[in-house]
Every structure is written in C-alpha cells, then in structure tokens.
Write a structure and sequence with these properties.
By secondary structure, this protein is mostly helical. Helix content is 57%, strand content 6%. The chain is built from eleven helices and two strands; from the N terminus they run ααααααααββααα. A two-stranded antiparallel sheet has the order 1-2. A hairpin with a 2-residue loop joins strand 1 and strand 2. Helix 5 packs antiparallel against helix 6 and helix 7 crosses helix 11. The chain is globular and about 65 Å long.
C-alpha cells in the first residue's frame, strides 16, 4: 500500500522547529493552533497504538531484518498521520473540548484579558495530560472488543471472582424469576461491562449501575447517562454514542432486566432455559438484544468459565443462604 506524503503535517509531527512555531501560535490564543495541537497528539496516540500492535505480533523470525524494521517504522509514522486526517479518530475534537475546559477558554474575540492569555499559554503544557487521560479513556470506550463492542481490557482472575461474588445474590433472585441459571446472567453482565470495569458512567464519573447495556429508549422515564459504545452494522463494528439507563443499585439493574425479558415477546424463548447458556444467549441474540454477530457464543463461553470460579466460591456462596445450591443449575 502506498500512502501519499502529508508534508505539512509531517513538518509539525517530526520537526522540532514546526512544534516551536505551533507553541507560539497557541500562546497567542489561536483556536486553530489549539486544534492543530490536538491533531498532533491524536497522531502520536495513533502511532502508539500501531506500535503496540506491531510489538504484539513480533518480528518475523525467518525473514525479518533491521532494514525491514526501519522501513516498517517509517510506514507506520506516515500511517498514523493518514489515520488522523480529516475527522480522524475523533480524539482531537475531544482533546480540544478538554483543553478548553481545563484552561477555562474557548474561542476569543481578540480582546483576551490576562487570565485568557495565561490559559492560552498553558494549553500546550496541559495538552499531553489531556491527551493521555482523555485519549486512553476514549480508546478504551470505543475500541472493537470481544463482547458488546467495548474494548476488552484484561481482567484478573481475582477481579472476576469478586465480580461473581458481588452479583451472585441478585443473579440468583433474577434467575429464579426467569428460570435461568444465574451463571448465564452473570456471564452476560460480564460481557456487557467487561467484568464490571466498564459500566456506563455519567460526565462526573458516577456509575449508572447498568450491568446489561440497557438503552434509555422513549419509554424510559428514569435517569440516564450518555457514553461511547459500539454497534455492529453488516458484521462491522462502528463507534457511536448511546444513552443508557441509570440505576441506584445493581439490584435495580437486575430487576429491570428481569422485567424486560418477562414482558417482551421477543425474548420469550430465553425464559426457562435453565443451565443451557447457548440456548439462553441465542434467544437473546435472535430477539435483537445485541448487534454483535458473535454475542451468543461469547456469553456461552464466559458462562463456562464462571463454572470454574464457582468450584472455589461454592462454600462462600452457600453461606449466603441456608438452602443448598443445585450444582446443575446454580439455583437454590
């Protein structure tokens, strides 16, 4: 693949003189310069992502060479610039808003007071911090993933065990109402939230306690949060934003989920599926619960892994109730 050379962008991206000129423009409170700074950090972040992917693949043990690596690095440098052209990855727009928020500034009318000048001068220094925090959050929220579209960052076995333990009482209650093994419900919650690490949050970082990716449609009258997500169209993941329901507790999330499945004809086939995780998840997928074409398989796979956790958790889970756990269904 041959990429056209973006000389103007490369001057700023690789040349310290260009970066110095850009800093001067930012100190003059030039809004276009602020956007250019954001675009450059977006390119740098894209380069970091590409490098991480290259490192994960590793060098060719047979035909790899230092010369090949040098050409690969030059190609990747240019690729990061190409990826962030035009609308780019969307990170630059968020960085601009973040920097304006941190500096208390925005577009000016040319009559900038001392506070405005100080904010403009500090923008270049704040940009790396904003890029690191906002960029990482954006990519974590909007990267392709193994589940409902969210990037699946590694979760330790201890964190998974804690997630299962915390949700088990509510999952058992919901499972009894639905006729579904609680393991399958926890598996779906784990898929939707990456084991609780990616529950939708509001602008202030407060958790929505939404464990099942429940959208806030026209019939929802409760609280909601808007956050980044991914949907699938024709088998391909696309980044977008969605409005999700917010609850006061995780138990409320489970009960709203139970209400949805019991009251919607689309999900009737998911009810009373017992310990058959694949039948349960397939019924949800066919009912239109998720757009990920691999949704059912992912839920079923996680449910299987939960069984291994339960082997060590069973004594602790039994202590929560005087009744024994049925090893075939996980239901009391």
């Amino acid at each position: 693949m041959t990429l056209p050379i973006d000389k103007a962008g490369a001057d700023v991206y690789t040349d310290f003189a260009g970066l110095t000129a850009l800093k001067k423009s930012v100190r003059n409170n030039d809004p276009e310069a602020v956007r250019q700074v954001a675009k450059q950090y977006e390119s740098l972040f894209a380069r970091m992502m590409i490098k991480s992917m290259r490192d994960a693949v590793g060098k060719d043990p047979l035909f790899g060479s230092d010369q090949e690596q040098s050409y690969q690095e030059m190609y990747d440098d240019q690729l990061s610039i190409e990826l962030t052209k035009g609308k780019g990855l969307g990170l630059a727009d968020i960085l601009v808003r973040q920097m304006q928020h941190l500096t208390g500034g925005g577009k000016t009318d040319g009559k900038t007071d001392a506070t405005g000048k100080q904010a403009a001068a500090g923008t270049a220094a704040i940009a790396p911090q904003a890029a690191n925090k906002t960029g990482l959050r954006l990519f974590k929220e909007n990267s392709p993933a193994s589940s409902s579209g969210h990037a699946a960052a590694p979760v330790t076995s201890e964190a998974q065990t804690s997630f299962i333990t915390d949700l088990w009482p509510a999952a058992q209650q919901a499972g009894q109402q639905l006729g579904v093994d609680p393991r399958n419900l926890i598996a779906q919650a784990a898929l939707e939230t990456n084991w609780g690490t990616r529950v939708p949050r509001d602008a202030n970082g407060r958790s929505s306690n939404n464990l099942f990716g429940m959208k806030a449609g026209g019939q929802w009258n409760g609280a909601s949060v808007t956050t980044g997500t991914q949907e699938y169209e024709n088998g391909s993941a696309i980044s977008t934003t969605g409005q999700f329901r917010a609850y006061d507790s995780r138990a409320q999330s489970f009960q709203d989920y139970v209400s949805l499945l019991r009251n919607s004809p689309r999900y009737t086939a998911a009810l009373n599926t017992g310990s058959n995780s694949l039948a349960f998840a397939t019924a949800l997928q066919r009912g239109g619960y998720a757009t990920d074409p691999d949704y059912a398989g992912k839920v079923s796979s996680i449910a299987s892994s939960i069984s291994s956790h339960l082997a060590t958790l069973e004594p602790a889970l039994k202590s929560a109730s005087a009744r024994p756990i049925n090893p075939m269904t996980g239901i009391l």
